[in-house]
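Morning!

This is the sequence you dropped in the shared folder:
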Amino acid sequence: MNIIYPFLGGVIFVITAFSALKTLVVPSANLSKIVVWVDKLISWVYLPITKFVKNFEKRDRILATQAAVYLFVVLVVWVLLIFLSLALLLEPSVPGFGNDLREAGSSLFTLGFASTNSPWATAIDFIGSFSGLIIVALQIAYLPTLYNSYNRRETEVTLMTPRSGEPPWGPEILARSKIGLTRNDLPEMYGDWEKWAADVTETHTSYPSLLRFRSPHPHASWLISFLAVLDSAALYLAVDPDNAPIQARLCLRMGFTCLRRIADMQNIAYNPDPLPTDGIQLSYQEFLDGLQRMSSVGFPINRTPQDAWQQFAGWRVNYESIAYQLALELDVVPAQWGGPRRSRILTIQTERVVNRTPEQPFGESPPLD
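The structure's back. Tokens below.
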């Protein structure tokens, strides 16, 4: 036992230290097993809690705590594993496992009330004190990085509200470009979201807990906003290809690249090279409802609905399955064109802006191109 206990303690210590350093110091899309297991455990706990909450606003308030709980539990698990490993390492020098635990806790939490006068025990005490301080310090330093990334992400999500309403919806973005905005603004918007997607690719694969951080408003969501932007770009290219900006294509390319990197990190299966004819889950009737909204404000549609549907599906097949799976896993707002959720919750319709003026208080007629 004098050999087995220290060996087991050393293995646990190395695995835990590697997990903490990989997560906090050298972020990587290849997550440590400890972090993955904690995330699955927290999700397993939250699933039955939220399953029967039919009101989405109440459900969102519960799920908003999941990211904080995850970060706390990860820290606790690391500390407990280090604590256990130190106790096992002390076994050859300190008689009785209870005394091992007492001295391990004294050194790990830098309390200093228990120590054994032997070279081996003294070395382990120093290692324990150093480990406890480093893990807590790294976790504290880790939080500003998370919140800076979160704030950058949510700034564009908030700016999307006047462009698309809540919850965001691709056709509404194009519809509002004919009312409160102009189509000249769309290239800049797609350029901003291309950069946003690149930033999210880097931050959300390096710091996967960001996926669990929800938007402050229950009807807002980084994922649904992103999906709406991609859908609007695909729609623009499908219905008016001659006037669609090149930024729409670039945004789409960076968009499904971003989702695929996140899918790789989350072990979500997808087809890396789908055919435009593979088909999508969105129904043709839902697509026609989107076209009707765009037509109601005079957005130019220069293809027949059937031709536009084929072109749109050819774009959406690149990102739909990943977006739907993430939306299901994260249980985000059930928006139009947003896919299924864990339980039967009614889709929340996007608020549709009406261009009211003093001359026409009930709304203007669709402009003629």
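Headline: The radius of gyration is 26 Å.

More detail when I'm at my desk.
O.
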